[in-house]
Design a protein that fits this description.
335 residues; alpha/beta; 5-stranded parallel β-sheet; 4-stranded parallel β-sheet; 11 helices; 36% helix; flat
Length: 335
């Protein structure tokens, strides 16, 4: 006689907004449309966004990822090369021009805005302070907009404590778009305390999507036995969401790339799970994780939503006449 084993009850607090922001969506669309318009291969310098699943999905469609432009073979120089959503130093398009390459810039418009803010500070005679993480592609791209030595990188409040500029009265700051709002506030406050004439950018640098995802995680975290953030280990905004969930009251918070990374054997006695996704994480993986919980629990999904995002960034002019269908994007958005 078969005795049915009842599944334990579970509530999944699904955060909204989550996952792709408009800048990431646009960058992926640019690669997909370039493949439709020009055929394979389309080259992409660095990961288009920080997500392995997305990269592999684009590779399956005919994209080839390279670290530097000199990896593009001579016979493919007429094929497009796409620059990632994180932005690139000015030296990269200059190198592409020198090699006579056709390139499409997928830099997020909000990152481009930070570039312009940094250049404006510089034009007005201010030394630029960039608040961000060393080695992040966005930081490399922003610092690369200005001459060597024109930008100082500050990562922490401790960095702000010991920073000694040549001219303390002529400073302007910008921030990496994907940082935690709370962490950035502490660094900015310390810099303003030390340098009262520090000039802020004309508009807030931290992007709307970073802020929105952090705010809804803050709302949903309290009372969660576990909070899962879908994202890559090299995704700055995803890692910040893990920290935000812990600070806001989740008992445990973990970054996962796929359902297979969840430690099911040691998950413990859980009643409420929070679930969100970084700005580079596709919805298909969120759905995969929900289904994995449903296979093991009597799971009820509750939507925790703070705002609806309506932002839409146009793709490059060269691609706007190419039709983009739901089927083209099903590999990341689901059916």
């Amino acid at each position: 006689m078969n005795i049915a084993v009842s599944k334990p009850d579970l509530t999944i607090r699904l955060c909204g907004p989550r996952g792709f922001c408009a800048g990431v969506d646009r960058a992926i669309q640019i690669v997909v449309l370039a493949l439709k318009a020009y055929g394979a291969p389309v080259y992409v310098r660095h990961e288009i966004v920080h997500n392995r699943y997305v990269v592999e999905g684009l590779e399956a469609k005919g994209a080839i990822f390279v670290e530097e432009l000199d990896e593009i073979p001579a016979e493919h120089r007429a094929q497009p090369v796409v620059f990632s959503a994180h932005g690139v130093p000015k030296s990269v398009p200059a190198d592409a021009d020198a090699r006579n390459l056709f390139y499409l810039d997928a830099t997020c418009p909000l990152v481009s805005k930070v570039h312009k803010q940094a250049m404006r500070h510089n034009r007005l005679g201010r030394h630029v302070i960039l608040i961000g993480h060393a080695g992040h592609p966005e930081v490399i791209g922003t610092m690369g907009q200005l001459p060597e030595g024109a930008v100082s990188l500050i990562e922490t409040v401790e960095d702000a404590d010991v920073y000694e500029p040549d001219d303390p009265d002529n400073l302007g700051f910008v921030t990496q778009t994907t940082l935690s709002v709370d962490d950035t506030a502490g660094v900015i406050a310390r810099l303003q305390e030390r340098f009262p004439n520090l000039t802020a950018p004309a508009a807030d640098s931290i992007c709307y999507a970073t802020t929105n995802r952090q705010e809804v995680v803050k709302e949903a975290a309290l009372g969660c036995d576990l909070f899962l953030i879908v994202g890559a280990p090299n995704s700055s905004n995803s890692k910040r969401l893990v920290e935000v969930a812990l600070r806001a009251g989740a008992k445990k918070s973990v970054l996962v790339q796929r359902a297979s990374e969840i430690d099911w054997d040691n998950i413990g006695d859980i009643k409420t799970v929070g679930l969100s996704a970084g700005a580079s994480a596709p919805e298909v993986i969120v759905n995969e994780i929900i289904e994995a919980f449903r296979a093991r629990y009597n799971a009820v999904v509750e939507l925790a939503e703070t705002v609806k995002e309506t932002e839409n960034f146009l793709v490059n002019r060269e691609l706007r006449s190419i039709e983009l269908t739901a089927a083209d994007m099903a590999f990341v958005n689901g059916e």
